[in-house]
Amino acid sequence: MGRRAILWGAFVVIHVVVAVLGWVMPNQPMGDVYLVYEPWSNQALSGSGIVGITQPWVYPQLALVPMVLAHGFAWIGGYTVGWAVLVTACNALAFWMLLGRARSRGRVRAAWFWLASILLLGPVGLYRIDAITVPLAIAGCLWLVGRPWLGGALLAVATWIKVWPAALLAAAVIAVRRRLAVLGAAVVISALTIAAVVAAGGAQYVFGFIGEQTGRGLQLEAPVSTVYLWRAVAGIDGSFIYYDPDILTFQVTGPNVDVVIALMTPLLVVFVALIAVAGAVKAWRGASFAALFVPLSLSLVTAFIALNKVGSPQYVTWIAVPLVIGLVIDRRRWWGPAVLGLAIAAVTQLVYPIMYGGLLQAQAVPAAALTLRNALMVALLVWSVARLARVRTAAQRRSAVARRGSVETC
């Protein structure tokens, strides 16, 4: 049996296993699908109102499209099964594009890495809206050099489903030589989306998802919440875990929490801007796409996670995209951080859904597991920024070639 057939067999088995785990694991790892995605889409299909159009919404407007499309597969076994089938189909298209004929060792290794990350992260990576954006983002990144218009368009569509692919889009505009094509495609997709929302009567909610996110508190799983989490574990008065019914998530509170909440978004914006500027300087000085794009995109994506006051476990799916592209470009250099990414995925599944009940009760062992996961994410951020700083410019490459030539002459 050829390695292509083995990989496709592994693809099917892993997706079936992860889909089934959603039904048997504790703490409702697929709860978002039947608790919020299905009601939102039913509401739109029944004419009772459209989230993001007739009312404010936490997601960009295109996120509703896959939620509605999942109904097309609901005949198989209900809406939740339909969602799993839709995600698997999207992953299959991106996997087919990534693997090709399985002749490239880099692409084969990247395919194995992606499958391993899906398995290690578990059902939360399959039963969330983020699962739709990952294959779109992988396909978009793979097309950036040969078909920048198409790559930029796919990344823009993914961004209008869940905001995080904007990090990949920004990295592409900086690193790709045909950046105007990437930017132009993103502008066209955005303009069409906004025009459709406005035409449907949702002008006041076009960018409502931005305000919905910035107004949130400190989510339990976010790295910045670690101090408050351990105060809750220690039973210190004034620090505890609570459920926010408005955004359907668990958060932490404690002394000066409002100050921390107010500081996190500006801190994230400033740090991301500094990374983007550093990447732009490298690009201006002649850094190649192959050397620049992956560390720049990984730095931006991990910053979006590590410095975010929202730390949902499905966010770990994001880091798979730049790591997949890194393995395609240079499998030896990027295998180390890819292994770190797999460790992050495995510990995340341990925290959620396996230990999540204990975490909500402020137990020490689940809190330690979450702290380890967050520490690994920060380590990946530090590594990626350091790697970005070491990207060679055109002048540095010429200097290195000149030094090698002089050594050979001697």
What's the story with the biggest beta sheet? 3 strands, antiparallel
Instruction: For the record, give the distance between the C-alpha atoms at the N and C termini, rounded to a whole number.
Output: 51 Å
Rounded mean pLDDT score: 94
Give, in spatial order, the strands making up the sheet with the most strands.
Answer: 1-3-2
Low-confidence stretches: none
Order of helices and strands: HHHHHHHHHHEHEEHHHHHHH
Number of helices: 18
Structural class category: mainly alpha
> Structurally, how many domains make up the residues?
1
Overall strand count: 3
The gyration radius over C-alpha positions equals: 22 Å
How much of the sequence lies in strands comes to under 5%
C-alpha geometry: globular
Helix content: 55-70%
